[in-house]
Specification:
Layout: H1 11-37, E1 40-42, H2 45-54, H3 56-60, E2 82-86, E3 89-92, H4 93-102, H5 105-113, H6 115-134, H7 143-165
Antiparallel strand pairs: 1-2, 2-3
Helix pairs in contact: 5-6
């Protein structure tokens, strides 16, 4: 016989929920442990402090260059100036400004206004990418096809952007 209470849920539902919660907990613990393995060392504080003022057009979406000579604190910055180290790898001013220009508007704004937080997340992402490559995931399905599709989408969008950015409207056409 089976005892059932009005307030009691079936064992199958409770078991499924417990496994899901345990899975989420394990995943959360793994992510936290992996995050601790990624490192960020800010080498040039002045660059990142001056970034919101020097990158206004990049934040607003206009593709202009970041003015590395915008203030006395950043006057000595050259494209090869070391700004930070992510997971032991150098990030120069040129690397960071090129990265900023390639980001979506929301992420770009975060990279400019909260660079320390952005760099922590970016270092973590790079750490996970290294692990995925070490496992050869980019060569396995379905990841290989997904990467090919994402590449095609990026190149298609680049082609459209290039065309649109090079449209010249003559004064008599305005």
């Amino acid at each position: 016989f089976k005892v059932v209470s009005i307030n009691m849920r079936p064992l199958e539902d409770v078991s499924r929920e417990a496994r899901a919660l345990t899975g989420q907990q394990v995943a959360g613990e793994w992510m936290a442990a992996e995050k601790k393995k990624s490192t960020v060392k800010i080498v040039h504080e002045a660059f990142f402090k001056a970034l919101p003022a020097t990158a206004g057009g990049v934040v607003s979406g206009r593709q202009k260059d970041i003015n590395l000579q915008a203030s006395p604190q950043t006057a000595e910055i050259k494209p090869t100036t070391l700004l930070a180290e992510l997971n032991g790898r150098p990030v120069t001013a040129e690397d960071y400004t090129n990265l900023i220009k390639s980001l979506s508007p929301q992420v770009r704004t975060r990279a400019i206004l909260s660079p320390a937080d952005f760099l922590k997340d970016y270092a973590f992402m790079l750490h996970l990418v290294e692990d995925a490559e070490r496992l050869g995931l980019e060569k396995r399905q379905p990841f290989r096809n997904r990467l090919a599709y994402d590449r095609n989408m990026t190149l298609m969008q680049a082609g459209v952007d290039e065309y649109l950015n090079n449209i010249v409207v003559l004064p008599e056409e305005q």
